[in-house]
Amino acid sequence: MKCLVPGAWCLAPLLLAVLTACGTITRTERDVYTITDVDTTVVSQVHNQPGDRDNGVIYPSSRTVMMERHMQQHDSVVVREYPGFIRLGVFEGVGLIGSSIDGTTTNTGMFGLYYDIDRLISGDAPDPNANTLHAGYIRRFGIGEWKLHWFDDDPNWTWGVTAYETIVPDNNHALRGIGVLSLRKRFYLRSLIPYMAITPQLHLAAFPSQYVNAGASADVGSIGGLNLRFYAGYAMGLTNPVDGEFINFPYAGLGVSVMDFLNREEELEVEWKYHEHSAWELGGAEGFLVGAGDVSASFFGRDKTTPEKSALTGFTFRVLHATIALPILDHRLSLGTSLVNAIALGVEEYGIGVLPIRASYHWQPFNNKFVVEPFAEFNYAPSTFTQFGVRAGLPISDQLSLLFIAAYASGNTGSDLGYSLYENSGTGYAKDFSAFYLGFGASFFDKIFSKDELRYGRGLPHE
User: Fold this and answer.
1) DSSP letters of 78-99?
2) How many CB atoms lie within 10 A of CB 175?
3) Residue 11: its pLDDT value, please?
4) Which of 85, 266, 316, 443 has the fewest beta carbons closer than 10 A?
């Protein structure tokens, strides 16, 4: 299948390098103390004098006292770690309204992420003349913001860098920037999680496009790294500095960001170990190899002339997922989502979901990091399918877990033409599917929190 974000993964080293070079993630303070240990030893001894002492003669005392004092000095270092950033995010997508310059559209829908699945599989270009509300999109990868000390240290000013940004107003125009500088000022309407703020902002890019993007956003977040933002702005610039076209356009749009964390200025003075958490689990990516019943053929034997079935018939994966605790049922009932969720149980039984809705129950039967998670998940676009099942995870390191899953999936691929995943296949198969499957896999760059790490159990404000 065609990748939803072509070239994004190859930019990962660049994103990390840019953000690391621009600002600190963790600020460390060290206090050095000199500790002095003083010890005094007193030894008392009585020595009996020989001979008869009952003769009226006064003898000197037979008790001797020895006193020794020892002093030892050594240094003690206390290390405290604080967040060094205001905002740090992995991805943000915005679906643009009213941005089209020539009347064409990218057909990417709300948040700029909902591709037509037939065109994803076939690799065809979108229909530029489709009548759709969302004409274009903004996507940002690797977002960092730090405290700005200008304006007499006025609060809530930040400067930032976006490692890679693309602004696409329609099907025929695009602005792209690497290392995009930004200036923001937040006016908080709510200072408790989830935060609410109005944020005027200015973005400047010099390469490969040269542009200015000014606007404002209404923000809700960050909870479990998830944020919603409504944008309104105006962008103008050269698509490239050599022979590019100068474009300018207003826009409005609704955006979502995942693995995107925000700290208020006051929280920069709170040690990491005391920060509030709202999620049971945050993850970068997870994948399963699965065996499913009642599928047309194994995905791993995709020759249409010799359809084969085997123990492993397909795979599932999801990227940038979060599971957020709810303050009910002992905080174990949770809601979650992921940026992309995909299943391919067989060559004709597949589905892709963007930002699905997932309800689950977080259960730790042995009071350790081993987690059993019954779940129900609804994927509404570009495929429409539902999953019910049980997922079990066992962390084996700080950022790696082994996973097992048993689930039932049922729905529609979302393909109008009935595309098959057979190599060199035509179209025309049944678009509906349903199958029970078992699988094993792993999750990478994930973090599973314990109950005492959640903000609900700390007596902290959490309205």
Assistant:
1) EEEEEE--SEEEEEEEEEEES-
2) 27
3) 47
4) 266
